[in-house]
Structure formats: structure tokens, C-alpha cells
């Protein structure tokens, strides 16, 4: 209770409070992006130069961390820990989420981090498709135009500069690009399904945020463990981190950064709504590309900067027009968010996707 009182008092300092929320999201997710690229792309060991290739192990560590936080959240806030929906609902979200995350990490073996990050912006299209199919949602012409502009920007980026990852130096550039793009298409498709099906679960069942996170991440942990054991990768993954302890430190830091970022995201959406969150996430993605280009030496061509500007310009325009619509409609983005179920993203696995529908 004392913690809740302190948070309520802190909210009175509105500008400082917003800055704290923004810094929390951007800081955690920038760190997450840097660690993701460091683990999947850069070699470990001064002599051997081994690369980490166990994407499912990364997913497992991430989900176990989030599951632990969700369990603590259920206990602290007195929420029920029994499932309120059939297990297959949680499992369906879990399967799509694990596959999407696996594709995201695996893609870094073939395409650069800026390509991967920019491709995520194109998730509007699969989210809109799944929303129409599963939720029978109807989108405005403006939404389709913005989605097309984002797609054009991504296409310009891919066609006008280097897209190959340093981890695929042994592969032909065409083959590496093909595999990387295929994996990102898989990410977009499964990630779009994840967010849409989660939305359906919240509307169909009276469940809390932590309850859904707990069982989705629990299923994801079992699924990741099964994949590692059945593929014979669990032993080699442990052997790798035993040879390179710094890799395990990076993996745990990545998991903590992702989970902490999700908590900041959930809190920010509750306090200020999805519009502020959408703006922050768009800015974070741009900064991630910029930071990756500096730290990991990914120089972007003039055409790639044009594509990047087109993508983020369209996303900022989308956020600005939604803000005007909210004002003219007499509703705040925060109230709209409350109309949904009370997201690492307001459900920690889906809020980023919701804001881009």
C-alpha cells in the first residue's frame, strides 16, 4: 500500500512522471535491442570467435523471467493464479508468440538489426488482416494508406543498401537476404496473430493482465524447453554459456531489460493511454536503428535513410491524426484504453501491436 501511495504522489509531478515513463520504456528497450544484436551477431571469445546460435534458449530465458514476474504480480496484487480460460487459448497465443520471437532472433543471423527493426514497423498489415479475420474489425482507408507507405519505405530500405548480417558472412548475399526476409515475414504473421488473439481472449474472458501473462509465458517456457530438448540444442546451449559466461550475463540482462520494459509499458498505457505509448515506441525504434548503426557499424545509404524517414513519418502521422480524432470525439486515449481489458508490451505481450492496428 505504501508503494501505491508513493506512486500516486509521484503522478502529481506530471511532466517529471511522463519523462520517467518515457525514459523507462526507451532505456529498457534500447538496451534490449543492443543486447539482442550483441548476443546473436557478434562472436564470443577472443580466439575461437564462436557465435551464439541458440535462439530458442534466448526465448526460454526471456519467458522464464517474465513468468516469474507475473507470478509475483499475481501474489502482490491478490489476483487469482488459476486459469480463467481454457488452456488451449493460452497455448495458442504461446505457440504464435514463441514462433514470432524465434523468427525475430533467428533473422539477425541473416539480416542486419536495422532491417529487422524497420521490418517490425510493417506489422500493421498482418495485424489488420488478422483483426479483420478474427475480430471482424473494419479499418479506415487512411489506415490502409499508412500501411502501404510503411511497406514502401521498408522496400526502399531493403533495395537501396546493405541488408546482410555480419553473422552470415559465409553466405551469398541473395540467400542471406531471402532467409532473413522469410523469417521476418514469419515474425510479422505470427506476431499479428498473437496480439489479435490476445485481444479476443480479454474480451471473451474476465482475466487480469498478470493471469494471462503467467499462463502464456508458462506455456511458452514448456514449448521452448521441448523445442530445445527435441532438437538436441539444450546441452550445447548450456555448454556455450559455460565456455562464455559473459554470454549468460548478456542473456539474463536482456531478459530483465525486456521484462522491465514491459512493466514500464503497461504502467504508461494505464496512466496516459496508447497514443503516448505509440509515439514513444516509434521514437524508440528510430533510436534503435541509429544506435545500432553507431555501435555495430551499420552505415546506411542515402536511399535507406529515405526509406527510414518514410516509415517513421507515416507512423508519426498516424499517431498525430489519432490524437486529433480523440480530441474531436471528446475522449482521451487513456479512456479508450480503459475500455479494453485493463499490455511488453496494457498486456505485456501485445500492447505494442495494439497501438499499430
TrEMBL record:
Region: Disordered, residue numbers: 322-357
Pfam families per UniProt: UAA (PF08449)
Keywords: Membrane, Transmembrane, Transmembrane helix, Transport
Topology in membrane: Multi-pass membrane protein
Cell location: Membrane
PANTHER family with a match to the protein in the record: ADENOSINE 3'-PHOSPHO 5'-PHOSPHOSULFATE TRANSPORTER 1, SOLUTE CARRIER FAMILY 35 MEMBER B
Similarity comment: Belongs to the nucleotide-sugar transporter family. UDP-galactose:UMP antiporter (TC 2.A.7.11) subfamily.
Descriptive protein name: Solute carrier family 35 (Adenosine 3'-phospho 5'-phosphosulfate transporter), member B2
Source organism (scientific name): Tetraselmis sp. GSL018
Amino acid at each position: 500500500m505504501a508503494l501505491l501511495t508513493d506512486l500516486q504522489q509521484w503522478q502529481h509531478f506530471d511532466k517529471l512522471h511522463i519523462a520517467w515513463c518515457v525514459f523507462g520504456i526507451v532505456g529498457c528497450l534500447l538496451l534490449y535491442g543492443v543486447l539482442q544484436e550483441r548476443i546473436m551477431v557478434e562472436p564470443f571469445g577472443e580466439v575461437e570467435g564462436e557465435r551464439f546460435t541458440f535462439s530458442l534458449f534466448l526465448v526460454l530465458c526471456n519467458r522464464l523471467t517474465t513468468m516469474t514476474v507475473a507470478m509475483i504480480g499475481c501474489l502482490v496484487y491478490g489476483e487469482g493464479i488459476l486459469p480463467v480460460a481454457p488452456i488451449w487459448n493460452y497455448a495458442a497465443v504461446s505457440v504464435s508468440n514463441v514462433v514470432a520471437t524465434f523468427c525475430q532472433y533467428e533473422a539477425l543471423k541473416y539480416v542486419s538489426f536495422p532491417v529487422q527493426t524497420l521490418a517490425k514497423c510493417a506489422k500493421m498489415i498482418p495485424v489488420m488482416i488478422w483483426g479483420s479475420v478474427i475480430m471482424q474489425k473494419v479499418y479506415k482507408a487512411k489506415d490502409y494508406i499508412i500501411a502501404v507507405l510503411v511497406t514502401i519505405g521498408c522496400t526502399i530500405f531493403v533495395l537501396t543498401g546493405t541488408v546482410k548480417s555480419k553473422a552470415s558472412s559465409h553466405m551469398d548475399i541473395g540467400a542471406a537476404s531471402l532467409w532473413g526476409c522469410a523469417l521476418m515475414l514469419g515474425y510479422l504473421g505470427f506476431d499479428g496473430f498473437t496480439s489479435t488473439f490476445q485481444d479476443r481472449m480479454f474480451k471473451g474472458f474476465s482475466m487480469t493482465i498478470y493471469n494471462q501473462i503467467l499462463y502464456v509465458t508458462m506455456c511458452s517456457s514448456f514449448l521452448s524447453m521441448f523445442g530445445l530438448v527435441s532438437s538436441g540444442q539444450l546441452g550445447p546451449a548450456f555448454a556455450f554459456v559455460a565456455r562464455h559466461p559473459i554470454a549468460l550475463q548478456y542473456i539474463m540482462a536482456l531478459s530483465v531489460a525486456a521484462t522491465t520494459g514491459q512493466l514500464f509499458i503497461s504502467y504508461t498505457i494505464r496512466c496516459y493511454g496508447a497514443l503516448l505509448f505509440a509515439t514513444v515506441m516509434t521514437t524508440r525504434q528510430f533510436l534503435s536503428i541509429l544506435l545500432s548503426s553507431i555501435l555495430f557499424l551499420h552505415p546506411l545509404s542515402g536511399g535507406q535513410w529515405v526509406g527510414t524517414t518514410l516509415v517513421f513519418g507515416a507512423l508519426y502521422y498516424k499517431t498525430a491524426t489519432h490524437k486529433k480524432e480523440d480530441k474531436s470525439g471528446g475522449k482521451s486515449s487513456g479512456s479508450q484504453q480503459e475500455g479494453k481489458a485493463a499490455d511488453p508490451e496494457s498486456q505485456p505481450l501485445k500492447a505494442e501491436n495494439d497501438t499499430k492496428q
